């Protein structure tokens, strides 16, 4: 039983007219969602933290989007990649998707992983499709895990590297030796990446194709080339587009042009920012090998490439946000587009997987210049990434099934962001394997069972005062604590006891009866989706 306050807002959302952008009566607003990889909110200047990882990045474009649009002070992802992506794309927590942690996904009794499309057949790709959008998914997957991309609802895909079940089959695959290890293009998603393209109009009769790359080719640039081309083509068809850009930038990686074999933050193409003109210049990178790439003796010369630091990858994300805004202006679509920038979990150097605030606290910026009612600047609300699916449904103006027909964990942010409501949620939730985290506006409980005073945001966004004497809680905090304890209990299995044994079914195999019950719910949902086909 879920706590009543969490689902006090109906999930049947038909939001035409006033909640859409002013001139979007003829065509619904375009939506762009950009997800950074392993970068905490505290590493973006707009959040004002007195700590960051390494040297502080400069992000003039993201700063401007956040100030002219808005950014949320407290948004939680999961602590690691795969559960976050499952939660965002499905709008559901792990008690429904069964994706608790990287490597801890639900298992079928007959063998194999319980795929997200099996537990959650309504995902953001299907939401966009039923709303009449053309959609593209570009960058990192890390949620397919053998499930075909066709089950996620997107019209086109650009994956770097390709899906695991077809990875390594590219005719353009190369390898190089480093010490006692061979690196392949499928190990790389930055320099000299493996690129798989699905449903591209240049290959209408093939489910996917491979793009040839060279050692000086940069994966994030290839992704953007495909995305911008998709936006242009869709705009020419006078259709709204949905971009789901899951960047690799921020994640440590293998560098195919480095003598080292350890993971690092490979350098990016060099950039120059002109503050007066508000423009970026990208300097063409060049990597030269002194011999065959698959030999140990080969060395590489790099030109117009930055040092290996996280700072430069954050700045390259800023450059890509500038590319989006520039393209939207060129197409005349800036005022008819909602842009959302976020991340999937905390920075690797901050020990992203810790079951405390710094493991889950991510940036969340919304920019919609054609929406005059959008709130502006910093917003002191709490949200988690399960809210993305219902939020996108609101923006796109499409209807979701009732909560009885299809349970969602998230709540749409759009009524709050457009000043239709002055409050969003009472609590947000996080998980990692058997650990549960929950937070309100004034109180927080981490995955170790410790409680923290969250009524004030600390200067480093992390070091909240720990609460050891609960007799000193304010009345508001005491009320929050009681509510959050109910939340935690509502996600615990009835046959599992003890304060630290929540989600003990994370590696348990699902029985045929459980699978059949979920399959029946999926059939009900399919009937709902068929009316939009």
Automatic annotation (TrEMBL):
Residue ranges annotated for the Sulfatase N-terminal domain, each copy included: 29-397
Lineage top rank: taxon: Bacteria
UniProt keyword annotation of Amino-acid biosynthesis present: no
EC number: 3.1.6.1
Keywords carried by this UniProt record: Hydrolase
Uppermost EC category: hydrolase
GO molecular function: arylsulfatase activity
Protein family membership: Belongs to the sulfatase family.
Protein name: Arylsulfatase
Organism name: Novipirellula herctigrandis
């Amino acid at each position: 039983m879920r706590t009543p306050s969490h689902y006090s807002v109906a999930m049947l959302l038909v939001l035409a007219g006033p909640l859409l952008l002013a001139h979007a009566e003829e065509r619904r607003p375009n939506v762009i969602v950009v997800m950074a990889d392993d970068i905490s909110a505290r590493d973006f200047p707009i959040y004002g933290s007195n700590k960051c990882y390494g040297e502080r990045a400069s992000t003039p474009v993201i700063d401007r989007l956040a100030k002219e649009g808005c950014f949320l002070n407290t948004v939680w992802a999961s602590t690691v990649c795969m559960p976050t992506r499952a939660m965002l794309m499905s709008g559901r927590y792990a008690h429904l998707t069964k994706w608790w942690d990287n490597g801890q996904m639900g298992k079928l009794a007959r063998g194999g992983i319980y795929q997200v499309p099996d537990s959650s057949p309504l995902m953001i790709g299907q939401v966009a499709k039923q709303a009449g959008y053309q959609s593209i998914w570009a960058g990192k997957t890390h949620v397919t895990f053998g499930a075909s991309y066709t089950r996620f609802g997107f019209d086109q895909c650009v994956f770097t590297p390709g899906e695991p079940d077809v990875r390594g089959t590219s005719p353009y695959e190369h390898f190089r030796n480093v010490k006692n290890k061979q690196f392949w293009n499928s190990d790389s998603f930055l320099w000299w990446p493996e690129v798989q393209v699905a449903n591209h109009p240049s290959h209408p009769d093939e489910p996917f194709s491979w793009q040839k790359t060279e050692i000086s080719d940069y994966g994030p640039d290839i992704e953007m080339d495909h995305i911008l081309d998709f936006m242009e083509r869709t705009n020419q068809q006078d259709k709204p587009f949905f971009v789901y850009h899951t960047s690799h930038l921020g994640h440590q990686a293998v560098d195919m042009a480095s003598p080292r074999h350890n993971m690092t933050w490979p350098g990016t193409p060099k950039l120059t920012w002109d503050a007066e003109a508000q423009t970026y210049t990208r300097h063409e990178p060049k990597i030269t090998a002194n011999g065959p790439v698959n030999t140990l003796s080969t060395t590489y010369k790099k030109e117009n490439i930055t040092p290996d630091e996280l700072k430069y990858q954050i700045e390259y994300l800023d450059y890509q946000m500038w590319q989006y805004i520039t393209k939207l202006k060129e197409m005349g679509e800036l005022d008819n587009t909602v842009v959302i920038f976020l991340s999937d979990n905390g920075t690797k150097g901050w020990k992203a997987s810790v079951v405390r605030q710094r493991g889950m606290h991510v940036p969340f910026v919304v920019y919609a210049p054609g929406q005059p009612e959008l709130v502006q600047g910093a917003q002191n609300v709490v949200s988690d990434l399960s809210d993305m699916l219902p939020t996108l449904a609101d923006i796109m103006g499409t209807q979701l099934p009732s909560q009885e027909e299809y349970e969602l964990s998230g709540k749409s942010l759009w009524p709050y962001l457009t000043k239709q409501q002055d409050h969003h949620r009472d609590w947000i939730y996080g998980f990692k394997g058997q650990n549960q985290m929950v937070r309100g506006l004034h109180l927080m409980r981490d995955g170790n069972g410790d409680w923290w005073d969250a009524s004030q945001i600390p200067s480093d966004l992390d070091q909240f005062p720990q609460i050891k004497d609960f007799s000193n809680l304010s009345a508001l905090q005491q009320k929050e604590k009681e509510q959050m304890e109910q939340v935690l209990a509502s996600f615990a299995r009835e046959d599992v006891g003890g304060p630290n044994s929540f989600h003990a079914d994370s590696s348990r195999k699902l029985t045929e009866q459980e699978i059949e019950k979920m399959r029946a719910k999926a059939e009900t949902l399919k009937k709902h989706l068929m009316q939009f086909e």
